[in-house]
Amino acid sequence: MTYVNPAGEFTRDQRYIATRITADGRDGFPVEAGRYRLVVSRACPWANRSIIVRRLLGLEDALSMGIAGPTHDERSWSFDLDPEGRDPVLGIERLQEAFLARFPDYDKGITVPALVDVPTGKVVTNDFPQITIDLSLEWTRFHRPGAPQLYPETLRGEIDDVNEVVFKDVNNGVYRAGFAGSQEAYEKAFERLFNRLDWLSARLEGQRYLVGDTITEADVRLFTTLARFDAVYHGHFKCNRQKLNEMPVLWAYARDLFQTPGFGDTIDFVHIKRHYYEVHRDINPTGVVPVGPDLSGWLTPHGRERLGGRPFGDGTPPPPPSPAETVPAAHRAG
């Protein structure tokens, strides 16, 4: 598999399955407890968003989760973490099987997160930005008591604006740097990335969260990139003007979220490093996975409480993850 664009600038294929699971079932897939399975990999930042939102909203009992391994080949993510290499609910070895069950000639990316209809074994959607919004707005009947408002109506315009620039310049920006096939394309992406990180630092210097005084969808989307920054993007993707832990405001902001229930407890640093360094062989031909960096700093005091803010607004923190969904201690910070 190749990821680098030899012609220069990396362009992400954003052709996703637009079908939605909604309360009114207008696309043929109504919200129902137990009907769907969220397939993720803990390595993937896009999937990590849905893991966090599902945790924060308390949807574990209504929406089961299948966890693919950290690596994949040209065919797709595989369930090599499960007994006999099959997802215990869907009974499949590869996520590709769910895509082909619905679209036999499917020719786009087999990506996570993906929502699969358990009775039919067919994929419903892999439209990752819409998935987390719909978990907030369409699955309210199954939210836990005290679930936070991650996409409050009064702030949606501002959240959308922040999300748009963060996606272009940061979430996707690290990939534009890492998969650039020319010096010019790389330097352009590099400058755009760090200019936006400087903008975010200035924005967050005087406020605890990106939009309003509580955690929102915007914080979830930025966090999953920041959590991977020093472990993979700084070295593997050559995003090396500074490490995250050398950017004081963003480092404190990231630690604040990391230490918030539902965020850091979803991060598997072993899976993250294995995915990037083992899968992207055109960048790292040997497949050697670095031992570092030191992760203990993630648990140090961040001091962001002085800015006020209420992490969950009028809600409450989520309970600890179930044993089946707990990241192994050896894969966590500290």
From TrEMBL:
Pfam families tied to this protein: GST_C_2 (PF13410), GST_N_2 (PF13409)
Domain of life: Bacteria
Region spans: Disordered: 300-334
All copies of domain GST C-terminal, residue ranges: 152-279
Protein's recorded name: Glutathione S-transferase C-terminal domain-containing protein
Gene source species: Actinoplanes sandaracinus
